[in-house]
Amino acid sequence: MITRRTLLLGTASGLSVLALAGCTTPEPEPTPSVTGTPTPTLVPQPLTMRRTNWAGDAFARGSFSFAAVGATPEHRAALREPVADRVFFAGEATAISEPGTVQGARESGLRAAAEVEAIADQSERIAVIGAGMAGLSAARLLVDAGYDVIVIEARDRTGGRIDTVTDADWPFPIELGPSFIRSSATTDLDEQLTVLGAASLEFTTEAEVRTRAGTVVAVDPVGAEAVADALVWAADQARDVSLERAIVDSGNGTLSTTVGDTGVSPADWLDYDLATGLKVTTGAGPGEVSAWYAPGAPATSDTSTDANTDATEDAPAVPRLVIGGYRSLLDDLATDIDVVTSNVVTLVAYDDDGVSLRLGAGESLSVDRVVVTIPLGVLQDEALEFSPALPFAHRGAIAALGMGVLDKVWLRFDEAFWSTDAPLWTIVGGDPDFAVWVNLLPLTGEPVLMGVVAAENADRLSQFSDDDFLVAALSALEPFLAAP
């Protein structure tokens, strides 16, 4: 049977994970507060709302990478290969393990910095494009090793897809990017946060599941079993197919649509498993994700390339919710580092003599070597030009890998309209846009909820105004209304 992936760890880590970008379109500013416009729902209006739109963010173009159909771990390996010993790549999409996570981003930055250090003279000047976790991790190692380093960031802040909001609208810092962290033998970010005084709370991954009518139901494993069977079937095929195709061709897509006593059908449980598992951990739908390298597939179990496998059997992952500011990690890394913000790199030209960077305003900067940490989505958008063009293996890897989308909505209420103390909520049936919710009340004492929307649902809602986005979120919360 498939092992259910830990909900939200890809988003949060995943969500996951994150770096910078280099393009010319300004970053969209989400509206921080709600105007109080009435909405067609019984759920009360929140005091404050904050949403993300990572697909529409010109400096991200998505949330984190995933294995698309035809993509393999070798594509990630190809993307992280240095070019002419001048251009080095980092970022979660290049991570050796835990791609799509903050841990993976940090590991990639340290790996790229070590590659530079192995061949560069200490008198050389090194540029790092991107002040996210990967970029600042690389810069920190190189500065501590004595190199002259400049970090160039397109945004007006550091952090990339790690975006901590601390203001009077919220009783504690909220995370628009990754919110969770996992403790395991290979992850010590929680310990670093503790040292820096940033609070995190142990979080259960046991969800309270409700139907759209509000009935609490136990999870029927039929959906997870259908996915598991499809993954085993796909592993024996001669070529990779999408998980959706594997479910259909393996005969696991014919689950009954007849509802039982709870109003939920076996087919609903398959949709539930995909919505709360696959879509959240990859930011993509089953028609996009590789059946060979989907979360839980035999290949990911063997290679540890899944975005959510940073634990071992001896040290099981223990998720923690960060409520003290993920940004503290970045601020600590950036201490005494030369970071230039609001500067977009549009061209990386390299030859045997060094690297020339062209900035969006027309200026140029000459360095000896460069570490590029912009997100995969921006590389796919071709917002950054390379001269000469990157080798075919790099371009093939950029084209093959997928960029998933996972967005969040944070809602703060005057008082709780729900009666459950469960910190994690999920919804089965009816294809809700927000199938996963985190209830912060039992953890913090504050009536704050965080909802997650992923894959094609996130793509569609990314076009919504704040008011319409709020309507969709509040509608999804109706199953949790307390009985009058």
Task: Write a structural description.
This protein has 484 residues and is an alpha/beta fold. The chain has one domain: FAD/NAD(P)-binding domain. It is built from 15 helices and 23 strands. The strands form six sheets. The chain has a seven-stranded mixed sheet with strand order 1-20-23-22-21-10-11, sandwiched between helices. It has a five-stranded parallel sheet with strand order 3-17-4-5-13, covered by helices on one side. A four-stranded mixed sheet has the order 16-15-14-18, with no helix packed on it. A hairpin with a 2-residue loop joins strand 14 and strand 15. It is globular. The N terminus is likely disordered.
- How much is the radius of gyration in Å? 22 Å
Placed side by side, the strands forming the largest sheet appear as 1-20-23-22-21-10-11
Rounded to the nearest angstrom, the distance between the terminal CA atoms is 40 Å
The computed structural class is alpha/beta
Q: Report the principal-axis shape.
A: globular
Report the total helices: 15
Query: What is the CATH superfamily label?
Result: FAD/NAD(P)-binding domain
In terms of DSSP E residues, the strand content is 15-25%
Protein name: FAD-binding protein
Keywords: Signal
Signal peptide: 1-21
InterPro entries: Amino_oxidase, FAD/NAD-bd_sf, Flavin_monoamine_oxidase
